[in-house]
Amino acid sequence: VVELLKINKITKVKLFDSNPQVLESLSGSNIGVTVGIPNSMLHTLNSSVKAAESWVHDNLTRYLPDRTRIEYIAVGDEPFLQTYGSQFYPFVVGAAINIEAALIRAKLANKVKVVIPCSFDAFQSESGVPSKGHFRSDINKTMISVLKFLSKTQSPFFVSISPFLSYYQNKNISLDFALYKPTAHSHNDSHRSYKNSFELSYDTLITALTVAGFSQIDIVISQIGWPTDGAPNATVSNAEVFTKGLLDHFRSKKGTPLRPRTMPIEIYLHTLLDEDQRNITAGNFERHWGLFTFDGQAKYQVDFDQGTKRLVNAQNVEYLASRWCVVNNNLNISNATAHATEACINADCTALSPGSSCFNLSWPGNVSYAFNSYYQQHDQRADSCDFGGLGMITTVDPSVGNCRFNVELKVSFSDSFHGSNFHHYLVSFVTTILVLQRL
């Protein structure tokens, strides 16, 4: 993964955790890193300065200053997400204050900034116009405390913006408007005209920040992207259109109606690689945000304008043997669907969902897809292609059109991790890549 970052001249990554093997892999790479503190730790860090000092020692001190270039600590993984309710946000500011105190004690406060990632649904406008933007009433008081902390420590405001989810959840947002297409119908707010979903969301945030009294705070878009599978209109072609539109908008430096000629200081594209064990509560598309496939192959070409005109695929990728598990059509397969359903519980069948790349597979092709997904995730063990005797191992690739039957990767650390789990573990943390920085 680190070689993939370097060969594509990607200079910064944002992780959702601080796993030591991931940080060791990034050691000496000169890649700027944002490490994350999971929501499950916020309560402890809020209540104990010693816990914060221990976290800083374990996750920063031994990697700084010369080995791994850690720039930000993200306190929580979007703890204000509305679906979380009040589970986490009461502890966010206290945890951030204690982490900051621990950095000061470790003499690292001038090297590493503490930030608090804000979810796309933390700010809203009931009427849909940016001039009526505000933070959600249940978190407004906490958000003001967050902004006071960030201003005091001169840290930027990290926020995710999701034109895809805005489109997915809002019937008033058209696909063209979400994708930056020039044919999109503009949304008007008094004398201001909005031509795409990003501008609309961004200026809604600007109004919310202004109402809270922090109109000039620097902003980092900590997460933005478009998935390529797992839902209608989550396609490679749409992701390409969206990403190119985002980059063109950023390079134009024209800003937005409320912040003309002022852009976010950084934008992170979500994500680097597909993650086939990611939680799919929000939707099957959650496993398909990657700019690259799970094995490091570029899904489409985009110019980051950072010295590379084309994305470079991962080199020297080692796969397991070219074999797949499919349903044996020579047997009575009337009970195959039940076995496929069971396989999908323990594998990744999101590409079979409506509107996805393998949705048009007819029965029993969809059963074979489920069997193979389970088989690959269990390292092609012979017993993982049984399914009551209905599974059959083949050396003929059953992929059809855009529906790819994957072959799992070989794993370097099989002595430390069971099978392919290390691959999924690493990928689940190396998830977001910097696309551009404001000059």
From TrEMBL:
GO molecular function: hydrolase activity, hydrolyzing O-glycosyl compounds
UniProt xrefs under InterPro entries: GH, Glyco_hydro_17, Glyco_hydro_17_plant, X8
Alphabetized UniProt keyword annotations: Disulfide bond, Glycosidase, Hydrolase, Signal
Pfam families xref list: Glyco_hydro_17, X8
Domain X8 span(s) in chain numbering: 323-405
GO BP terms, alphabetized: carbohydrate metabolic process
Family statement drawn from the similarity comment of this UniProt entry: Belongs to the glycosyl hydrolase 17 family.
Protein name in the entry: Glycoside hydrolase, catalytic domain-containing protein
Organism: Cynara cardunculus var. scolymus (Globe artichoke)
Taxonomic lineage of the native organism: Eukaryota, Viridiplantae, Streptophyta, Embryophyta, Tracheophyta
